[in-house]
Amino acid sequence: MATTNAPFPMPPASADLATTWAFLEEGVDHIMTKLQTGYMSLYTVAYNYCTSSKMHGSSTESIGTGLGGRSGANLMGSDLYHNLIRYFVTHLKGLREATDLLQDEALLRYYAAEWSRYTTGANYINRLFTYLNRHWVKRERDEGRKGVYPVYTLALVQWKINLFIPIQQKQTKLAGAILRLIEDQRNGGVIDQGLVKKVVDSFVSLGLDDTDPNKACLDVYKEHFELPFIDATEKYYKQESESFLASNTISDYLKKAEERLKEEEDRVERYLNTQTRKPLISKCEHVLIREHSEHMWESFQSLLDFDKDEDLQRMYALLSRIPEGLEPLRKKFEEHVKKAGLAAVSKLVGEAGSSTETLDPKAYVDALLEVHKKNSETVTRSFRGEAGFVASLDKACREFVNRNAATGLSNSKSPELIAKHADLLLRKNNKLAEEDDLEVALNRVMILFKYIEDKDVFQTFYTTKLSKRLIHGVSASDESEASMISKLKEACGFEYTNKLQRMFTDMSLSKDLTDSFKSRMEQNHDDMDISFSIMVLGTNFWPLTPPGHEFVIPPEILPTYDRFQKYYQMKHSGRKLTWLWNYSKNELRTNYLNQKYILMTSSYQMAVLLQYNKNDTLSLTELVTATSIPKDLLTQVLALLVKAKILINEETDQYDLNPNFKSKKIRVNLNQPIKAEQKAESTDVLKTVDEDRKYVIQATIVRIMKARKTMKNQPLIQEVISQISQRFAPKIPDIKKAIDTLLEKEYIERVEGTRDTFAYVA
Amino acid sequence: MPLDGSRPIIFAWQMSAKEMAKISKEEWVRGTTSLRVSSVHAISVAMSELEDLLVQGKPPVKPPTKKDEEYNRSVYMGYAADPKAAFQKLYQFSFVLVKPEQSKNIDMDTSVAFWTVLLVPKFPLMGEVLGFIGEKPGTYKATNKDLWSMMLEFCETVKPDLSNYEADGAWPTLLDDFVAWKGTQVGTGNGKVDGDD
Question: Which of B83, B118, B147 corresponds to the end of one domain?
Fold first, then answer.
């Protein structure tokens, strides 16, 4: 210890050689000559004293009681230990008196300097008394005397009792000084962080676990620093956040709060104990976020309205730190997206005029997707794709995709429009130059498809449209068709696209069949001036209905008809061919005009026109008799021919062949759809859907009941809904009706003596 | 013997008849023997007492002394011990009796006629159900066994104000529809139905 109180003051940095050497020589000499007699001898003397067995009668002091009758070494230890305590008390008293006049930073500097000197010294002393620690102190502690410590710990305990506590007792002078420095720093001042760290670390060192002095203990740190620090933090930020918000926008506040939280994290990093991180940060979160969460929730909408991405990101990041913070945002976001979707469609409907019949499917799909895209980006960018916000987005989209101004109360309008859009994309004249563009467009359709509740309605419309594309050969490409089907399959499973795939199989089989029939006929007949192609389509897979009336097959094509009929029966005996005249088409060559035209017609138009091979004038009645086409349908067929000026209708119900027919084009397309057919299409589709649903519900109930044997009403209904909702949202009354039907058909029965339990009837 | 109301059904039931309005000789002999009735008057008394007990829900008669007995009341006394169970037997018997053999259902007009005589006297609510069915001609075409059974269950367990009807219960859709319909009737301030409470 002598060296620390060197008699010579340290020479200044500018000292000359003489002064410097004089100072150094003193030290060198000390190490060379006195170390042996100084330090080493101290240890030896302490050792000798502790191990001497003779009693030193002069010492009668003892710490604690019950020390009588010990061996000499024990008593010797006790005396030495006690003298040490006395020394520390005196030493610390001097230090303490010096602090009386010190305040704030000066106090901290003095304290930190003395602490470092003291602990260094105590370390040496501890080593001098190693023997005492190892034997006397250890035995005392082993015997349960908690008040006896190894010498280093003793020094700390004495520091705490004689210096630390007395200073703290004067209005927590030490902690107060630290807190003022921290506040200064929070206010933007520059402080000596190293100093704060030193003092704070001393608080940690002073903590003592009585049962194990080597174990770290934070009681002093927590009581004297952490608690007041957290309190001060709360007060500071409460005051700051309130006054800040009073004069600044929420955007600025979000930035501020974010910065503050970061600062506090750094503060722990720089000079506090890491254990303070949790209480400090959670207090800051409480004061800076939770206390103002209402305000943030309220401001959320306007941030959304003005697309303030960065602010949204910040608000999300802040509120995600408190458990209840995000739920209100998710709700508001859902509502926001829903409103945006509804507004987009309302605007579109408004532009299209009041009628939703004329709504352009592409515009409709684009409007829906635009809203989805924008908000989906917001979720990814501002809410980091958090699952709760994704769910809100999905919920809102499902809502406005299925119910909006265009759909009114109809559940089928949206699936219909989306299916129509898909149809337009997949047609030859889709205006999309590249295959890639088409793929992108189809993927976009799938985004909406995911949200459609009544996927069966989409399916039915899609199937109908696909059948038209295939029959009329207007599909853009087989690859794109296959790609779309595989997307649907991926989304809804094999069963959903089974029919669609079978339709393609039928198409390719039909092509082969046409070829083989043609080559066979070329071998057997030489009157082949009719070229013929056939599509044989499985009844169960195609949404096609045969004509509901008779049809007189014109003699011109009758041989071909018979030959194919025979050929097919020979190939597949037992199969029934139903001729779908209403879907067939023909090309007729004209011979009665100077210019030869090719008329592209429907079968009915063909049947009518062929009558004029033998006549120039025919009455409606004669035509009905000749073709068997019902009158009301026939008049529509004739109307188109008259409009195209092939026929002339000058007198009521009389149709003459126009001998002066002229057209700019050689190929004249007469095969325009008949209005009644178009309208019937939508209602037909819906009827099909309704019928299908009944069976789907019944089949589902039977399947469930077969597996479960008995089931109560409520769980059964829930199970049905959960199994079917993939395809459409079944209504409870429909399920109950299905149950009624199955009870009647005795697939299930009510369990005797219960009112709401059903059993499967095997 | 008066043949209005439920008496013909009760008689068929007592005779264990297989077909409506027809009683075979064998059934007749077995039935009359067990009731020990030998005159039209005695049959009439027996039927009217059973109707009062089961359909009208009146308290059982005190049997007169053995000597004056018009017919053997041992069956009657058996019913009187548990009229509810006895009525259920009669009610279930009626379904089988009315139902054409090859069918699983009885048509709605017949159902309504039977409910009028069997259920309406004891359960005023049934009158309203029939009123509802009458307002929707053609909606409900037939009654299957389940609906038949559940109709009695409905009458016996549901309060006239429908306050204990579970909309999400397993009731047949006809009854769900009825309850929904009655809700709108009250809602329109019709007020007539309130008188039943």
Answer: B83
pLDDT in tens, A658-686: 888 888 888 888 887 776 565 666 677 77
Residue B184 forms part of a structural domain: yes
Residue listed under structure tokens 């800051």: A284
Whether residues B144 and A737 touch (CB distance < 8 A) is answered with no
Q: Is residue B169 part of a domain?
A: yes
Asked if B107 reaches chain A (Cβ–Cβ under 8 Å), the answer is: no
Would you call A714 an interface residue with chain B, using a CB distance cutoff of 8 Å? Answer: yes
pLDDT at A2: 39
* A752 and chain B in contact, CB less than 8 A: no
Among B83, B116, B139, give the residue marking a domain's end: B83
Which pLDDT belongs to residue A167? Answer: 86
C-alpha distance from residue A338 to each of A302, A402, B104 (Å): 16, 11, 50
- CA Rg value for chain A: 48
Of the listed ranges A213-217, A222-226, A294-298, the one predicted with least confidence: A213-217
B88 lies within 8 A of chain A by CB: no
**Measured distance CA(B121)–CA(B6) in Å, rounded:** 10
Which pTM does this prediction carry?
A: 0.71
What is the span of the domain harbouring residue B70?
7-83
> What is the rounded CA–CA span in Å between residue A245 and residue A253?
6
Q: Residue B104: which of A744, A750, A757 has the nearest Cβ?
A: A744
Domain count, chain B: 2
Backbone Cα Rg of chain B:
19
Residues B37, B66 within the same domain? yes
Residues of B whose CB is below 8 A from A740: 144, 146-147, 172-173
